[in-house]
Amino acid sequence: MNISTQPHIARPVKGSKRIVILDALRGFALMGIALALLRRVFVTTVLVGLPLSIAYAWSSMDGHPWGDMTHDLLYTLSVYPMGLAYMSGLSLLYLRFDSWPCWRLLPIQVGWP
């Protein structure tokens, strides 16, 4: 009988292969959740971090008019969200335009081998 005309027969998978398959499926599901949240993380962290970064820069240039404690609080609430915004923005750019030659300028290899 020809291969293309044979009916498909489902064969059981070995236990070790089953674990690998389930881990891969679990990873793909988690990646889908993360990708769905990535745009929301980017928008939220930019909306929070950018105005606070501007307030922090103004506070730095004006000699801490609200005191050192507020200056430190502005730093904490602006730098960490902007770091998340930068990384999520770069991740979204890479997912959208993964064939850009500029990715090869990075000191690490980006993408699948």
Question: What attributes does this structure have?
Answer:
113 residues; mainly alpha; elongated
Topology:
Blueprint: H1 15-61, H2 68-96
Helix pairs in contact: 1-2
Structural write-up:
The chain is mainly alpha-helical and 113 residues long. The chain has a domain at 36-98. The protein contains two helices and no strands. The chain has helices spanning 15-61, 68-96.
Run of helices and strands? HH
- Estimated radius of gyration: 24 Å
Say how many strands there are. Answer: 0
Largest sheet: none
Quote the beta fraction: under 5%
On the 0-100 scale, what is the average pLDDT?
A: 78
- Subunit organisation of the chains: single chain
- Proportion of helical residues: 55-70%
Low-confidence stretches: none
Measured between the Cα atoms of the first and last residue, the distance is 39 Å
Give the structural class: mainly alpha
> Per the principal axes of the C-alpha atoms, what is the gross shape?
elongated
Could you give a short description of this structure?
With 113 residues, the protein is an all-alpha fold. The chain has helices spanning 15-61, 68-96.
